[in-house]
């Protein structure tokens, strides 16, 4: 077993698409997907841009105001996630700050009550 300290992952600032207070740190990579941690400082924004692949943003701490191609923002907090489909325009903002886990790529995602892994039944 290994324990990963997500706060210790090397982060780089990102300013693309008008992003502010946004940094990203890679913690995993496969041929089909990548796994990163995202940090937004209070008042930060990940500017509107198209998802490169299916993207799952899981809020670990803080608050996120997320929107997809429809543009209507939804507030989510710890234990909640947003999913964007490939090429979907999306944006993430925060009031108090945000730490999130992002998985992007060829990933099958279930919905509540949907069995993804047959071993789960």
UniProtKB/TrEMBL annotation:
SUPFAM superfamilies: RmlC-like cupins. It holds the Pfam family Cupin_2. Residues 37-102 form the Cupin type-2 domain. It comes from the Bacteria. This is Cupin domain-containing protein.
